[in-house]
């Protein structure tokens, strides 16, 4: 076992087992201000048919006069219930872009193209040239284009002699017969324009050049797996009250370090996903809103304040970043979502089949990018309500449980078993490709699920129940989540940590494990000291926020404060009296299930915790635009 060091990751020594790795060193779209372009179309309102609303890349650092060229395009494939969003240029059919650029040794150009269904485009040619000499001329026939359905991905090796400063050109043109004319609206979208360099363990000089340019050159990858609505107890062998239905996830726990007292900093998917990849609380990002729709000022504030998003941070170190999910909240083209900075985002909307499709695309991505440095985010929707597991998995759970649980809980566990099986297929692919030893795996959930009848309620304002759901209450069963870090040789195996931690710690921990610079804007902290067996010097305050209020878990007590948007009560709340206040207090030392509200009997303790929360919020709070 390699010893963990909170200052220097063991990934630096990983080259002994790897032949080479392709590292991204230039994203051409990020440098459009230095390119010569012809035939570039402006973003066109309304959205072009076949796309799911196009919008300017909110993370672009380009000058305003060229920023309009950098557009995020979401393509809707109704046949598969899939949305695919990428950074792209919208080119007329006779369009081109040219860069005067420094090329590194063993360079490769990656790109994707898409032809909108309404283009009516026939045969056309894509060319890649270096100093005017064609490196690639590829002809696309109408039946190959699959118009309106998907991106066509290409990988173009550049000749070895193209080292140093050269003119790199990419162009498209129609192939027309006598008397033919290109359709008026004919266009092509170019995306994923990235230059890679192949780094080998024996070429030390090239490794030095790459390290000077983008940081550590060691082969390393990150795979973050989020399973929606999984309660923390499901993977805790000490607190689980039923036979395990997750052999794959159990093996992941045994092979890594599991944090059995991990909590979400929010109780909804959008908030939790944003917190995970930013390392910041909602208050510090100005995202404390009860509404699904984010107003334009809130969105602009999020994009302009410099939130340290993990995908964008890893861009600087040559990572390809990809999200494959059933999670519409990571799409900036929807008013209820935020763009989190991934290169590509694919979202599957079909219930049940989304698990299959996410897994298949993940396996395809791993195979295609096995020699690249990647950050892959997988977000499985099961066991989100409604609980509808495929019959074989439901039968498997019933056989294990012997019919001892309610139908809802059995179906819930059936969906978890279903997801466990498909995650196993992803991990098997990872091992088959020889990627396991150089891939950091993080497993968690965005939030838990309310199962206790004492926490049941119904919100008229949000048209939602509390029971067998989430997003309204702040009880532990809704905030407690699994959190596992797995990396053979780098993360301790078989270690269980019971110190309280939160989702805000995920991003800084990933950066520290990779040996990369940790952004000072993170609210969270590295968990490596806890992985190494160190005891926390002080007890951690666990703070969570949502659309109906906030909670603080501290020194054995739990304070829940409801806001104006909270229009419900639960049986647990009413144990304080027939007309309970919008404050709950629980002594977790004697009431871990949070069923006896002590707020009226121990008001001084509630007031003390409220003051602690106000002090914490004062440190986090930013001005939320109105």
Characterise this structure.
The chain folds into three domains: 23-200, Jelly Rolls; 221-531, Alkaline Phosphatase, subunit A, CATH 3.40.720.10; 542-620, 2-Layer Sandwich (Arylsulfatase, C-terminal domain), CATH 3.30.1120.10. The model is unreliable at 1-17 and 45-52 (pLDDT under 50). Helix 9 packs parallel to helix 11 (407-432) and helix 10 (391-401) packs across helix 11 (407-432). The protein is built from 16 helices and 28 strands. By secondary structure, it is of the alpha+beta class. The longest helix is centred in the C-terminal third of the chain and has 26 residues, at 407-432. The strands form four sheets. It has a 19-stranded mixed β-sheet that branches. Strands 25-26-27-28 form a four-stranded antiparallel β-sheet, covered by helices on one side. The chain is 23% helix and 27% strand. The chain is globular. 48% of the residues are buried. The protein starts with 20 loop residues before the first strand and ends in a 6-residue tail after the last helix.
């Amino acid at each position: 076992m390699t010893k963990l060091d909170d200052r220097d990751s063991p990934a630096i020594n990983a080259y002994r087992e790897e032949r080479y790795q392709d590292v991204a060193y230039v994203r051409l779209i990020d440098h459009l201000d230095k390119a010569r372009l012809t035939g570039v179309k402006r973003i066109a309102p309304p959205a072009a048919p076949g796309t799911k609303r196009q919008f300017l890349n909110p993370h672009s650092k380009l000058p305003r006069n060229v920023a309009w060229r950098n557009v995020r395009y979401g393509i809707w494939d109704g046949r598969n219930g899939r949305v695919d969003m990428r950074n792209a240029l919208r080119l007329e059919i006779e369009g081109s872009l040219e860069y005067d650029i420094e090329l590194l040794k063993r360079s490769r150009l990656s790109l994707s193209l898409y032809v909108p269904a309404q283009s009516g485009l026939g045969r056309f040619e894509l060319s890649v040239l270096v100093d005017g000499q064609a490196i690639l001329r590829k002809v696309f026939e109408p039946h190959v284009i699959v118009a309106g359905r998907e991106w066509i991905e290409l990988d173009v090796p550049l000749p070895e002699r193209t080292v140093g400063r050269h003119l790199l050109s990419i162009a498209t043109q129609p192939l027309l017969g006598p008397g033919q004319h290109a359709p008026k609206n004919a266009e092509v979208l170019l995306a994923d324009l990235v230059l890679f360099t192949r780094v080998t363990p024996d070429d030390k000089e090239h490794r030095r050049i790459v390290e000077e340019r983008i940081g550590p050159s060691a082969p390393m990858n990150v795979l973050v797996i989020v399973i929606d609505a999984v309660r923390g107890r499901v993977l805790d062998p000490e607190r689980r009250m039923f036979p395990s239905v997750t052999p794959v996830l159990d093996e992941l726990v045994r092979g890594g370090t599991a944090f059995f007292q991990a909590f979400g900093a929010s109780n909804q998917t959008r908030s939790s996903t944003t917190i995970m990849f930013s390392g910041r609380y909602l208050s510090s990002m100005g995202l404390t809103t009860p509404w699904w729709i984010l107003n334009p000022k809130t969105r602009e504030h999020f994009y302009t304040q410099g939130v340290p998003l993990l995908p964008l941070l890893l861009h600087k170190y040559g990572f390809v970043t990809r999200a494959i999910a059933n999670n519409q909240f990571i799409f900036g083209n929807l008013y209820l979502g935020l763009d989190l900075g991934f290169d590509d985002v694919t979202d599957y909307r079909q219930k049940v089949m989304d698990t299959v499709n996410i897994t298949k695309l993940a396996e395809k991505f791993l195979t295609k990018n096995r020699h690249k440095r990647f950050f892959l985010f997988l977000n499985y929707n099961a066991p989100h309500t409604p609980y509808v597991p495929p019959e074989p998995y439901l039968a498997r759970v019933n056989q294990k449980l012997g019919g001892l649980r309610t139908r809802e809980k059995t179906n819930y566990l059936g969906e978890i078993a279903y997801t466990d099986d498909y995650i196993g297929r992803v991990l098997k692919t990872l091992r088959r490709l020889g990627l396991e030893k150089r891939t950091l795996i993080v497993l968690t959930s965005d939030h838990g699920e309310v199962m206790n009848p004492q926490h049941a309620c119904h919100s008229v304002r949000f048209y939602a129940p509390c029971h067998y759901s989430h997003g309204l209450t702040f009880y532990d069963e809704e905030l407690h989540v699994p959190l596992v870090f797995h990396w053979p040789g780098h993360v301790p195996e078989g270690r269980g940590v019971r110190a309280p931690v939160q989702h805000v710690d995920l991003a800084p921990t990933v950066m520290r494990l990779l040996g990369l610079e940790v952004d000072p804007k993170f609210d969270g902290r590295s968990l490596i000291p806890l992985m190494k067996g160190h005891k926390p010097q002080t007890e951690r305050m666990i703070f969570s926020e949502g659309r109906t209020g906030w909670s603080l878990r501290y020194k054995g007590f739990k304070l829940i404060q409801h806001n104006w948007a909270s229009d419900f009560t639960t049986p647990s709340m009413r144990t304080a009296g027939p007309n309970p206040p919008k404050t709950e207090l629980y002594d977790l030392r004697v009431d871990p299930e949070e069923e006896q509200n002590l707020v009226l009997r121990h008001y001084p303790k509630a007031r003390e915790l409220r003051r602690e929360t106000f002090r914490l919020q004062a440190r986090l709070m930013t001005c939320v635009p109105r």
